[in-house]
Amino acid sequence: MTDPYREGHPMTKRILHVVTNVAHYDDPAHRTGLWLSELTHAWHVFDQRGYRQELVSPAGGAVPLEPRALKFPNDDKTAKAWRADPAKTALLENTASPDQIDASQYDAIYFTGGHAVMYDFPDSDGLQRITREIYERGGIVSSVCHGYCGLLNTRLSDGTHLIAGRAMTGFAWTEEVLARVAKLVPYNAEQQAKDRGARYRKAALPFVPHTVTDGNLVTGQNPQSATATAKKVVEALEAGAR
Fold this sequence. Notes:
13% strand, 8 strands, 6-stranded mixed beta sheet, two-stranded parallel sheet, Rossmann fold, alpha/beta
């Protein structure tokens, strides 16, 4: 039997992944970038469904990789496979910029993480526009780990924060401390989310998979949550398709 998802069926979903352009913390000696497995785990889940996937970054162009994400145990099978595939690595060398994106063409937006996103995600007017348009027409807005920094300043058409009053999660301050980067990061993202009215939730233990779904907002707490977050996005999309 033919799988409609593999045959470019009209109901095939389109996912827009958001990645960073930033390569270091405020201190250039401390490198950062995209936490690769947060992209590859989700990409794999969506690819299994036959979804069409594309990348966007705040400035467009090249995407640096977080060095720590390229070491054991973070550099897992999907991350290794991505880096071994010239076509996949090329995708991170020339990403689209927000002004090249027509939000009406996407069913979901997925914000990846890595500490780098704390710098270029929050104040991108282009990303905010895309997110607002997808969200307000009933599409799925999702993030994993620090990706929720891309939602902190996004406002809806009525002027309210998208995350105000919404249950959500993201990399916890406790995890920043345990990762020994609390003194490097530019702000406390968990507190920033709470300050904007989000009903922030986290797992009882750090660095374990944890997701929160509130309507068409789907969020994951940490790198370990990427696969689970993507599966929740699939559930939400498939539920909406019925």
